[in-house]
Hints:
Blueprint: E1 2-8, H1 14-24, E2 31-38, H2 42-48, E3 57-62, H3 68-78, E4 83-87, E5 91-92, H4 98-104, E6 110-113, E7 116-117, H5 129-139, H6 143-146, E8 158-162, H7 163-169, H8 181-191, E9 195-198, E10 203-205, H9 211-231, H10 236-239, H11 243-253, H12 257-275, H13 282-305
Parallel strand pairs: 1-2, 1-4, 2-3, 6-9, 7-10
Antiparallel strand pairs: 4-8, 5-10, 6-8
Helix pairs in contact: 9-13, 11-13, 12-13
Amino acid sequence: MISVLIPVYNRKVVSLVTSLRNQAVKLPAETEIVVLDDGSSKPFRTENALILEMEGVRYVELPENTGRAAARNRLADEAVHDRLLFIDGDAVIGRESFLEEYVSHSDEQTVVCGGLAYFHQPPEDPSELLRYRVGVSRECLPASVRRTRPYGSFLSSNFMIPAKLFHRIRFDERMKGYGHEDTLFGFRLKQENILVRHIDNPVIHGNPETNREYLGKALEAAGNLVKAWGFTGYDPDFVQEVKLLRSAVGLRRLGMSFPVRKMVSLLREPAMRNLTGPHPHLVFFDLLKLDACLEALHVAKRNTAG
């Protein structure tokens, strides 16, 4: 029995829920769909309320935004079945056997991760290319690749977990803002020696964002990564799970943080022009994320020392 759990914030999800409901009614396993609106604005809540008319679907509205971690925990608390399938509200279901595939891999001791895909054609609007290029080159990984780093490859956008395992760990609600609550969750799975199985059953990322919007979120996430590390007690094993943090920590240990940040400061203006323009280059994207991570490490060290 499966509870499909969809956190939503300022997204239209009627199409997503309809796709999942059409598959759910064909399954031998009892299935519910729970949608949690995490304080969206009224136009989104009004449209998404249409799913209340669907059988087997529950729609819960929160009066204000609680954050990505807290919303997922609330969804797990709302669920009634013993398997929890989390799917982000901006996902598109690309295959008719999506739910059936998860059912076939279900067991009581394993977390199953389906992966992420992007549409084959890039966005027509060049101001939305950055997210697409990052996604296609770094997030669209087949299961064979993700299995080489099962915990570091964990994504919260599309995974199934036994309810009893989820409630042993839960998402850390101290993680606020955008990014890396799933990185921390994946590390907790590793600490608990919970098996993570990667399969090729992706959802499609269906939320176009402008280059400027996505860049802002990515830089926020780089700072959030350091916060996540702090919540582990600065466990050195956590560093090894994330390339960005590994690079930033390594530079600090070598005394190279200041010269690297100085170099990035000289490149910041042309980098920003490039990344927010029609032909973004990922080398600039990586440099700005590294700078944001180094700054967060500096702040964390200063606060710890204080």
